[in-house]
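Thread title: Can someone regenerate the structure for this chain?

I was given the following input by a collaborator and told the matching structure tokens would be attached. They weren't. Posting the sequence so someone can regenerate them.
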Amino acid sequence: MTQISILGCGWLGLPLAKALLRNGFSVKGSTTSEEKLSALASEGIDPFLVALNSERITGAIDEFLLGSDTLIINIPPQLRGKNSDTATVNEKVFVAKIKALIPHIERSTIQNVLFVSSTSVYGEVNGTVTEETTAQPDTESGKQLLEAEMLLQNNNNFRTTILRFGGLIGEDRNPIKFLAGKQNLENPETCINFIHQDDCIGIILKIITTDSWNEIYNGVSPFHPTRKTYYTQKATELNLPLPEFDHSKTSNKKLILSDKVEIVLGYSFSKTNL
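Best answer:
Regenerated them for you:
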């Protein structure tokens, strides 16, 4: 039975772990919360308390990696807020975490790394974006994600695939819940670049089962209505106050394509109407 380690069993990592178990894999999962250990164990996941920070890794990181062929790194940069590192943003906190992790990967049984990244690495460009588009991040988190990507890709001790997800959507997660009733929202004619949690999991399973390593994939649903159309429709469906948009400025026209996922990986999106 192939064993996989998932670093970060949160909103995406936990249902991903369950899906891997259903597909015959054994799973080690990490959390930074001691309270969640029993919940992971109850799902059949081998639980580990592991925390990365800019100076060191706490917890049984080597035991967490031991015996696994594949490591899925699914931790957000978290450069701000209560879960952020104590160091400053300028010290490249997230990059430092990945640097601290790499030596542990190198001396482990890990052969493949799947790094969950974000389409924020492309920045706010105008036009169509594919995996061939030069990444030009304009946010601190995007910059650090791109640097982390390169650190992993340039290491010859394991094979790395980068998966750049668009905005994450799920049954319990939609931006309209925060935007309902808001006024003067920018970019009404910008298209959305979202992906449903089910397809996030489906793409990851496809990468693993087809042994698709040393690749970069965009993970964005082929469903791109404008922000105004999408959020107005969602607010109506959920009986929420309609958001109001500012049409005085030209909208950005960023369209992110996932053709490579469909053509090269052979994946068919299950949620094409978000």
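Confidence is low (pLDDT under 50) at residues 80-87.
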